[in-house]
């Protein structure tokens, strides 16, 4: 009797389970192979192409600043949601009465190749031509993933990444200069958000990276490399956001002040 | 036919094989859940040490900020169109965490249950199935009881079919119990909730690249149902193959050895996957079906969900055909 009831309960569980699992299997296949089930994705795309053309035009009474690059350019990590877009005009205002117009094209997680593709897509051409200053922050995402590797692999990967990064950067600069040979390109160096846990080896790699970037950037006379490493080294607690990676509000403010000090004469003079 | 299956199932249960499998599941799940719990505690400690604040309690601030960042990103005209869907999916998840006050660092029974099967699908689950399947036929041969089976007035194909269906029933039981045990045991560690949390899925492979333009959130329970269904499919395939081997090789030890070494070999043969094209037609490298759901894999040219399912199905059908042909024709000398 016990065996009989056991057999029936097993049979029931098996049948129900089989049907359930068959349904689940069908769903799993559908979800990974079916053609796009989300038609809503299309809508915002047509919207965005519309307002990218609506940029403020060149004006003698204004400074135009174009911000390019990764999440730091974008302003990620600022708990007030401001970033360079708001702090740069604030710092520039002390030196000039002109209006400061900001155009932020930063994309979170962007690597040097992404920036190059962004420029090659020609969408930004008008913004580049009109700009007086171009602030670029790129490279952090290129190098970040090698941090977890062991010492040997790190060295090799570093070389590979750096080579492709420098090649992309060179082309990026070339594109920027073909569109606008006169604007001041301000390039932000990398800092090390993991200063407290990192080894001397990592510091050496970071310095090499920054050094080579600066060499490449400043081949052109109208560019400026702004180091960030020194400003943040002992101030990580104050200037780094809760995510442990991006600058926070105070950090963006400090960097903006440093940038505006470096270009003070250009702003007041023109 | 029905009574034949009944007979087989009762035989398997009185052999205590299923009990062994369940006992292994209980022990291992407990160990994993305990380990996960330990890792969680360690991670929390490390995080709060590194960031200097108790990030674990402060996660709402961080999530709020991430949400604002992502919203800005979606509004940006320079946003890469391909990544819009994944950003939206991430926002939905964060919003859900905020609305329901769920710390994303915390584990839940639902998360654990799903991860457990995702990790078990390519080696652990097949090994359990082998335990059940490998001696179904060879066991009868080596103990001589196959004579008693065959002298009955039943065609041989019916005997084999009843064995096969019994195996399917047992596979359902293993998958079912794996789910129930994982949910209950991990529930004691992490609480029983989490079944409604959104999980991202819907990754596709286009032209050798992972395409996330159509990702969407499904509730956790549905996601785990899909994971366990894929696991069940894998169980059927591995079961069919090991049943075939157990018919071809009449010794239980040899049949377990063969199928186990094949499985283990599959784990390192996938190193050659990108260079040595023929390896992708082996069943062992196609067992990680759940990776297609979670999008956590390096896309390999020509491999996607349909491909893997077709390959596995091909192996299963071929082994069933070989089993039946061989078993109905073979001479039984005991």
Task: Tell me what the structure shows.
- The complex is a heterodimer of chains A (270) and B (334).
- With 270 residues, chain A is of the alpha/beta class.
- Chain A has a single domain (61-269), classed as Rossmann fold (3-Layer(aba) Sandwich), CATH 3.40.50.1110.
- Helix content of chain A is 57%, strand content 10%.
- Mean pLDDT of chain A is 82; it is low at 37-57.
- By secondary structure, chain B is mainly α.
- In chain B, 69% of the residues lie in helices and 4% in strands.
- Chain B has helices spanning 2-14, 17-51, 59-75, 84-100, 109-120, 124-133, 135-143, 146-150, 156-190, 220-248, 252-269, 290-294, 305-329, and strands at 198-201, 204-206, 209-211, 216-219.
- Chain B has one domain.
- Chain B has a two-stranded antiparallel sheet with strand order 1-4. Chain B has a two-stranded antiparallel ribbon with strand order 2-3.
- The model of chain B has no long low-confidence stretch (mean pLDDT 82).
- The chains are: A alpha/beta (270), B mainly alpha (334).
- Chains A and B meet through helix 1 and helix 2 of A and helix 1, helix 3, helix 9, helix 10 and helix 13 of B.
Keywords for this entry:
heterodimer, A: 270 residues, alpha/beta, Rossmann fold, five-stranded parallel β-sheet, 13 helices, 10% strand, B: 334 residues, mainly alpha, two-stranded antiparallel ribbon
Task: Please outline what is shown here.
The complex is a heterodimer of chains A (about 270) and B (about 325). With about 270 residues, chain A is an alpha/beta fold.
User: Which percent range fits the helix content of chain B?
Assistant: 55-70%
Structural class of chain B: mainly alpha
Shape call of chain A: elongated
- What is the CATH topology classification name of chain A? Rossmann fold
- Radius of gyration of chain B from the CA trace? 24 Å
Instruction: Please tell me the CATH architecture of chain A by its name.
Output: 3-Layer(aba) Sandwich
Write down how many β-strands of chain A occur, each being a DSSP E stretch of 2 or more residues.
5
